[in-house]
């Protein structure tokens, strides 16, 4: 299992498409920085099909006032959760 | 759940020539790794596929392009050139438009390529 | 594109040739066989026909790819141009002791190879 990390918003960048293309069936996706915008209910559709494998970083949501506005499909993790995700993955791949 | 990767280093190139230095830096990383004996595969994704178009030249102010470096890959034994099929379609390009021999990858092919390599660098 | 400013000069046929801190030509157009001779003397290398063959391969490589090669691709280029007998790192190390790819690039009037340490 690979952990993919996206730091760009799907509203402004096509990078999310490359991440999706690179993802295997059990790979996970973590949204960080501006990427957390993709956790909003209006934008989460870009990540259709990732149910249970989609994460967003709490600290980045909080600093943007987006905490509590996430779609229910998205699992919010803090920095420790980020570290745990990294440890569980064989490798991480950054898409920026 | 997942098999051990069989290939060594995958360098993903997602930027075209000129404009930014990402392509050049990605190629540099690939060449350094190859010079030190690593087996390198390249994967051209998104805008990166335009790096493989023939007929490129220097920039408007005479800046060097990446054309000569791409020609040189073979001298560094970098022969596995993978291309995202979707990106070719997005840019209206065909495999035959590429000036080096490339292997087109479907969406699942891209995911498999990532899984297959021990190390992945994205540029 | 080669380098920065002149660090010292090489005397060659009453001309002063600018070199960078590592001894590479600052202006690549300054190169001539006489300059190669003078640079070789600094390395205590006497240029033989076998040396000149390698320098030619290097200059061709640079003309084609716009970069000076690291050891592996240099060995490969020499093998392609001069035959597999010479396309071996031992041959190069005998001709250009030390960091062969760097020494040979210097004498051939190329910039420092980018992809080796």
TrEMBL record, chain A:
Gene3D superfamilies: DsrEFH-like. One of its GO terms (biological process) is tRNA wobble position uridine thiolation. InterPro entries: DsrEFH-like (IPR027396), Sulphur_relay_TusB/DsrH (IPR007215). One of its GO terms (cellular component) is sulfurtransferase complex. Coiled coil: none annotated. This is tRNA 2-thiouridine synthesizing protein B. The lineage of its organism: Bacteria, Pseudomonadati, Pseudomonadota, Gammaproteobacteria, Oceanospirillales.
UniProtKB/TrEMBL annotation, chain B:
InterPro entries: DsrEFH-like (IPR027396), Sulphur_relay_DsrE/F-like (IPR003787), Sulphur_relay_TusC/DsrF (IPR017462). Transmembrane segments: none annotated. Gene3D superfamilies: DsrEFH-like. Coiled coil: none annotated. It holds the Pfam family DsrE. It comes from the Bacteria. NCBIfam families: PRK00211.1, sulf_tusC_dsrF. Belongs to the DsrF/TusC family. This is tRNA 2-thiouridine synthesizing protein C.
Automatic annotation (TrEMBL), chain C:
It is found in: Cytoplasm. Keywords: Cytoplasm, Transferase. Its main location: cytoplasm. GO terms for molecular function: sulfur carrier activity; transferase activity. GO terms for biological process: tRNA wobble position uridine thiolation. GO terms for cellular component: cytoplasm. Its EC number is 2.8.1.-. The active site is at 116 (cysteine persulfide intermediate). The keyword Transferase applies. InterPro entries: DsrC-like_C (IPR042072), DsrC-like_dom_sf (IPR025526), DsrC-like_N (IPR043163), DsrC/TusE (IPR007453). NCBIfam families: dsrC_tusE_dsvC. Part of a sulfur-relay system. Belongs to the dsrC/tusE family. This is Sulfurtransferase. It comes from Halomonas cerina. The lineage of its organism: Bacteria, Pseudomonadati, Pseudomonadota, Gammaproteobacteria, Oceanospirillales.
């Amino acid at each position: 299992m690979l952990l993919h990390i996206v730091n760009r918003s799907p509203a402004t960048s096509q990078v999310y498409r490359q991440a999706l293309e690179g993802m295997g069936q059990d790979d996970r996706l973590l949204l960080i920085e501006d990427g957390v915008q993709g956790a909003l209910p209006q934008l989460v559709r870009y990540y259709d099909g990732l149910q249970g494998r989609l994460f967003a970083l709490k600290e980045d949501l909080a600093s943007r006032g987006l905490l509590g506005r996430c779609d229910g499909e998205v699992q919010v993790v803090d920095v420790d959760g980020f570290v745990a995700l990294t440890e569980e993955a064989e490798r991480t791949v950054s898409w920026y | 759940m997942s098999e051990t990767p069989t290939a060594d280093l995958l360098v993903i190139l997602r930027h075209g020539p000129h404009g930014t230095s990402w392509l050049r830096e990605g190629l540099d990383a690939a060449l350094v790794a190859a010079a030190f004996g690593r087996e390198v595969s390249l994967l051209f994704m998104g805008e990166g596929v335009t790096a493989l178009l023939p007929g490129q030249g220097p920039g408007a102010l005479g800046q060097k392009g990446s054309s000569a470096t791409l020609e040189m890959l073979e001298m560094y034994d970098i022969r596995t050139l993978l291309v995202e099929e979707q990106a070719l379609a997005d840019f209206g390009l065909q495999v035959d438009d590429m000036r080096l021999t490339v292997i087109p990858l479907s969406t699942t092919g891209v995911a498999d390529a990532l899984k297959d390599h021990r190390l992945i660098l994205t540029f | 594109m080669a380098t920065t400013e002149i660090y010292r000069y090489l005397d060659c046929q009453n001309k002063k040739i600018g070199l960078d801190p590592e001894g590479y030509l600052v202006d690549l157009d300054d190169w001539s066989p006489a300059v190669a001779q003078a640079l070789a003397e600094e390395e205590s290398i006497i240029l033989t026909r076998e040396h000149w063959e390698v320098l030619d391969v290097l200059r061709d490589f640079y003309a084609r790819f716009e970069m000076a090669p690291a050891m592996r691709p240099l060995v490969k280029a020499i093998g392609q141009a001069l035959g597999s007998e010479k396309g071996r790192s031992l041959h190069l190390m005998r001709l250009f002791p030390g960091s062969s790819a760097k020494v040979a690039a210097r004498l051939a009037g190329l910039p420092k190879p980018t992809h080796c340490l």
